[in-house]
Amino acid sequence: MVERNRKVSVLLPCRNEERYISTVIVNIINQDYDINYIDFLIIDGMSDDSTREIIDKYQKTFNFLRLINNPYKTVPYALNLGIKNSTGEIIIRIDAHAVYPPNYISTLVYYLDKLGADNVGGVWETLPSSNSKVAKSISIALSTPFGVGNAEYRIRYNASREYVEVDTVPFGCYRREVFDKIGLFDEDLTRNQDNEFNERLKKNGGKIYLIPSLKVQYFARDSYMKLFKMQFQYGYFGPLVDLKLKRPTRIRRYIPTIFVLSLILPLLLVPVDTRLGLVSAISLVLYIVASASFSLYELYKRRNLHLFPFLAYAYLVSHISYGIGYLAGVWDFLLNKKHLHKKVEVNLSR
After folding, report:
1. Residue numbers of the chain with a pLDDT score lower than 50
2. pTM, two decimal places
């Protein structure tokens, strides 16, 4: 049984989330965990839509909900502000673009205690943000092995195992003492702050577990341009994560970059030897064959073969943008040390 008298702080970073904010607030209000032991902090990045007005409406009824201003606007600043202002012995980070089951908090608290874990989380059931073919295809691309590698929280929908030790989980449920031990989220990392923190946690002997039966419905981007911007940013901050950790991370995070390099480098060397152009051509052909095969396989399982061109293109956009982003990060962080001279700013992709 879950000890429902343990104080839990739920942190929600947000900015301009008028479309989703009511749903996530209601999700937390309707949890089966005793509301008197929930400390709900919404850390808003100075929204200029109706997000703050919606939050204010709920605050008038539910005094466990607090609004904190985040003048820096980005997620790591929001998380750190939330941690510093929280009162719970357990800290759960959530996202506005998701729907949480009523047993979300109680299940996380139960497994955090049962496993003696430092961080636990559920799996993402990635859903389209609209009914368009593009949105549906993007949601599939971000929940299949060809699209995201072995990121288990994105692909492990099979609950045959009660729990699985992993390298990272989405959002995360942490013991407060974890932050006292290894520090807060790195504010240089507009993206990938969860990955860096969890790698740091494991480096210090921490245990992270995925709970396959606990599903969070997460809404993916709904256009190729939004997908490109998101994946570019994840790739862009990858080299900075490596620098912070002083070592490489997971192999899946380098494969798109290797693919992009296999296209670019031979072409750059064509003036030296024209035959090298064949290397780029072969790499592209192999990718197209693999993408077509995996697209057909995934769509056949879903009885959605009409999405084939849209899914194949979603894979291409995702992989190319991530790879290009990583190379841009290598230039900025590894070579030019941009992060040492000024705050790294990017336009957020939502």
Report:
1. none
2. 0.89
